[in-house]
Design a protein that fits this description.
By secondary structure, this protein is α/β, with parallel strands linked by helices. The protein has eleven helices and ten strands.
Amino acid sequence: MNADEGKSPLFAGAPRAPVTFDTHYTMPDRLSDPSLSPIGGVRIGVFDSGVGGLSVLRALRERMPEAELLYVADSGYAPYGEKTDAFVVERSLAIARFLLEQGADLLVVACNTATAAAVHALREAHPSLPIVGIEPGLKPAVALSARGRVGVMATTGTLRSARFRQLVERHGGQAQVHLQPCPGLAAAIETGDLDTPALRELVETFCAPLRAAEVDTVVLGCTHYPFVAPLIAQAMGPAVTLVDTSEAVARQTVRLATARLAGRTPSPHTSPLAGGMRLWSSGDPDRLSSTVHRWLGLEAQASRLP
């Protein structure tokens, strides 16, 4: 789906790219599209191994401007893609508990690796909590590919997971799916500087095998990667389509939040939320605040994750 290309101040200073997303998608009419109806009185807990999940947070803020967003960047332990599954599960459960303590009504796992490793454990631990995960957009990529040649750029942790293997079995079909692990790319993006010679060289290293395989569609299988989509698009060439699923995650979150609110009896003692945002980092909170300002054009002071 095409990311909303509106001129909202939300995107001031944010890196954007001429990227086609997981289905053909046009800007909806904000007065008639129920997925863009104001949703207040709900807190959405979002977490990622670092700042990559800000690509999902951006889509959530655009679609749910009246919801309160709680974001945890686990930057002190990033990237998850180079950690063991057991470690990722442990961190995911701990962060979910923290977000629930802050009043989260539902949880968005804005990390492909954490979804692959931990979403099942999260749902077992919190069976009544709506949880939205994210996974590489292989199904729409196969549908978009004109020649059945699809590349997947993702972390080593995502590509080695049983969940991803099942995704390929379900949706790979007759397509040739070329898997490209990208060790170090999420960590490089995590620094916040999105156009350095070293980062360009890293992107070129991972794109070269996909060019050699003559793929015509590339899945951005990590929430960090949309922030360097311009570099990836440049490396792959204009004939290659990039696929991201941030908007699909935002739409699913809207649906679950709407259902959650429909079953809730408003309390006369509860103050309505005003679309605020709270941020925490297990790394440098000031760096998270700065990144949110530079990439999303939003002012919010992050705190250190307890």
